[in-house]
Amino acid sequence: GAVATAVAVSVLATRLWRSRRVPGSVCVAVLGDLGRSPRMQYHALALARHGRSVSLLGHLQTSPHGDVLRSDRIQLVPVSELRGLRVGPKVFQYVLKVLVQAIQLLYTMLRIEQPSYILLQNPPGLPGIAVAWVACLFWRSKLIIDWHNYGYTIMSLRHGINHPLVQIAKWYEKLFGRLSDYNLCVTKAMKEDLCVNCNIKAVTLYDRPASYFKETPLEVQHHLYMKLARDYEPFRPRTESVGLNMERSAFTEMDGTNGHVVKPRGRPALLISSTSWTEDEDFSVLLKALEGYERSIDEGVKLPSLVCVITGKGPLKDYYNRLINELHFKHIQICTPWLEAEDYPLLLGSADLGVCLHKSSSGLDLPMKVVDMFGSCLPVCAIYFECLHELVKHNENGLIFRDADELTEQLKMLFSGFPTLEGKLHHFRKNLRESKQVRWDESWDQTVLPLFGQNE
């Protein structure tokens, strides 16, 4: 610890000696996996689009989007992830991890070119907010916090709201949150809560879909299905090909002579959900709903087979995979792939229905996956929580459910008569097409761009 502190201090001294400000450069930081932090990637791309040089700082477990990797204005600054320390009591391990993270993060932040701004994602904010504030003091930079949620409410899912660590995290978040120069947040409800409970003034920047979230052309869908069929059984055709020149997936057929692609009438419906496999999403709700759907088919209700794709990485994935493997469905196939960044928007733009099980730990943030689904004109069934109405309009662009039974009934209603064009699914998709949704770039330019320009 003493050696690391001495190194950090010596770097500070060296930087003070030869620091040079790069006009307009910005550090965009997240103490998490950059590849799974789309909003922070979007911030970096928006800044680069406006001529800023960006240091994008975070863990490099999964690859960021190709646009980020290709940008000559964005430099990736890796922060190595600390594995849990196994010495002493749990509280000691946690405190030690935070201290080591703080030194590591400060050291990394002081090695980049001097930024005019540090834009930090919260959560995780411990120790990120305090470290970014110290770095800003050193650089004479401005600190902007982008509030996605509260870190202490996520901790409370595991430990309970009255746990001492949770209470310390709450105090820390409120205290250091007030030291920022500007604040962004994801909903009006969070803006209000920050103002009332933390005395923090924030600007609401709703998550918006990037331009590459859109409906996927049929030929591109077919190529995607054929690619996924190499690794995942549910994308393979149920029966052998009838024509010599026919190339088939579970959902599409391509005539090899003229390249013409069609969706056959008896195809299964494609249902997609994405998750970070954490405590704030209870996937047993979806599994129970699918059991109810399967039971209805067995009882003679005319419904299509389902392919259910759940994408994402996270700590509870193995647990849910075990539950999935115990289910023996005849009419439903489930797979849990990790998709490349470029394939995920294509799959959303190809699916028939999205399902969201995100329940906000604070009740104040909105699921970005639904934003992306709506950008792809994909109707959604989403589980209820307090401010969900800011995004999902029940019976307009999707449906809101409260439990597994209600989701079963919604799936049966939406897929009744599938794949004909009539019915609610078509109605929701039509509404999404006509809603002319604001895209990220447009929203960012209106809301965030004015903040950059007050410190040059």
Which structural class do the helices and strands define?
A: alpha/beta
The rough form would be described as globular
Strand content: 15-25%
Strand order of the largest sheet: 3-2-1-4-5-6-7
CATH class of the largest domain: Alpha Beta
**How many β strands by DSSP?**
16
CATH homologous superfamily descriptor of the largest domain: Glycogen Phosphorylase B
- Number of folding domains? 2
CATH topology of the largest domain: Rossmann fold
Supply the number of helical segments. Answer: 16
In percent, how helical is the residue content?
Answer: 25-40%
Major sheet attributes: 7 strands, parallel
Q: Which regions contain 5 or more consecutive residues with pLDDT less than 50? A: 13-21
